[in-house]
């Protein structure tokens, strides 16, 4: 992905490393300029420079300038290339005797030292202009130079970012931040957030309100981080999101709230998760689902970087049931087809054992996906690993059918697939020569979910072999709606839990079912999906205290005392309200094409939730724990080993 990101940035350029770096810097700053606000910001106000390294052109010829930057490289003690966030500029090191001290500073300073130079902007001699460098027509004839700070031997080369491990990057994050991609990611993130604030506050009258970080345990949902207090046995919890506060703000009459909110969930990091992450958190009074969706469509359209193509609104919408049936997931990647097809009816009289078994059960189904030209691109070992995945993770069989020609079923059970089933499949899946059909059987949700995973796996395999299925420049937004309000608990399917959170309102047409068949109630929840990733979710809330009490106490069997403040607030003229939260880190990850959300966060945690730079979390001496009335109960070696082998992601990077 990094190489993909990089190739996007310097598309069409294939020059030596040093040249490439120059071009990357210039194109990064150019695209930032492209997507910046119309008013050009003053980049050198209040500081000890007159200009940035990337902004000087022929129009500045003859000007006296002062620049500050890091030494990118030096050539034959004659030229120095200076870098800041805005670009690169060539500095001519004076060779004459009176300027010997300037020459000494500039020639002796190690790479990545930070220097200040003052001098005149001059034209590069004929034949030495570099048309590919934005500052390539000029250079700086230096008069004075100051070494602001020297740089020790680096743990890795700043420009050579491709070759270092993520653990090393995180350990020296302050150096990694100097890289072109981190600069680009964080600056673009800042610009998008600025545009979002502008849209929400200036164009639509939203109020930015900060809510507490020290809070109390919330029933249900993700695991929360616990913070000891000085009161014996009492703990704060870090909020999973400002959900309760934003609803209470509605009761308080702040009818259009937003916050760039930090949220905390004690779950291991994954490429798209972090123990602490940021949401664009929004709530409105007197709104319905369409109102929230239109607001978000407008917000993304307004804040979208102009060089990433237009955002077309309204976004398409898909009921959850369809997403599950056709894509096997609640976050379908709609950039490509390969949809799941239900072929149960076609196989009612099958002689294939595992299909027969599945269909004899009340919930049994048979599902298929068709991989176009699969026979050409998939290898035997791919099919073997697909079948192993299905067996290991779903305890299900997958039957591959290779279609050399439409009549020739090259499959272990080909002889059992009757003629009419074969031609039915060809018709239903519109199969062609060289396609591969994968079949599985089982309970609807389980079979769909397996097929959904295989669909993505096959897409990755085809793309690894050069087939273009998903256009990397395409941003495919989708609303997923009509979720169930409750789901059976995994550990005890007789009991229900909220599909999202307990404050979600039931679908108006299903309210009566709440008291009779709660598992059938649809919710007023909506998820926003981008290229197969959930980037946001929200709902219309329950604003009636009695209904909220019923859901918590009777359906979910939660301890209502934990939420008595909210239930009480709903009794004091709470307006109808609803909202949404966008996951900013995931959104930025997709916009920048970064391989992980850690690449759009300045100081992220490792997979294990560690800060590899400062070594947090760290131990605290027992006497400092005393005021909190807590003691560490140290695990045995066996327990330590067990907990690290159970950890979702064992490696540090
Ligand atoms: N608080 C929810 C979440 O963090 C989003 C919402 O319902 O607005 O997922």
Automatic annotation (TrEMBL):
Its EC number is 6.1.1.12. GO terms for biological process: aspartyl-tRNA aminoacylation; mitochondrial asparaginyl-tRNA aminoacylation. PROSITE patterns: AA_TRNA_LIGASE_II. Residues 634-653 are annotated as: Disordered. Residues 639-653 have a biased composition (Basic and acidic residues). Pfam families: GAD (PF02938), tRNA-synt_2 (PF00152), tRNA_anti-codon (PF01336). It comes from the Eukaryota. InterPro entries: Aa-tRNA-synt_II (IPR004364), aa-tRNA-synth_II (IPR006195), aa-tRNA-synth_II/BPL/LPL (IPR045864), Asp-tRNA-ligase_1 (IPR004524), Asp-tRNA-ligase_1_N (IPR047089), Asp/Asn-tRNA-synth_IIb (IPR002312), AspRS_core (IPR047090), GAD-like_sf (IPR004115). It is found in: Mitochondrion matrix; Mitochondrion membrane. GO terms for molecular function: aspartate-tRNA ligase activity; aspartate-tRNA(Asn) ligase activity; ATP binding; nucleic acid binding; protein homodimerization activity. Its main location: mitochondrion. The keyword Transferase does not apply. Keywords: Acetylation, Aminoacyl-tRNA synthetase, ATP-binding, Ligase, Membrane, Mitochondrion, Nucleotide-binding, Phosphoprotein, Protein biosynthesis, Transit peptide. It catalyses: tRNA(Asp) + L-aspartate + ATP = L-aspartyl-tRNA(Asp) + AMP + diphosphate. Homodimer. Catalyzes the attachment of aspartate to tRNA(Asp) in a two-step reaction: aspartate is first activated by ATP to form Asp-AMP and then transferred to the acceptor end of tRNA(Asp). Belongs to the class-II aminoacyl-tRNA synthetase family. Type 1 subfamily. This is Aspartate--tRNA ligase, mitochondrial. It comes from Moschus moschiferus. The lineage of its organism: Eukaryota, Metazoa, Chordata, Craniata, Vertebrata.
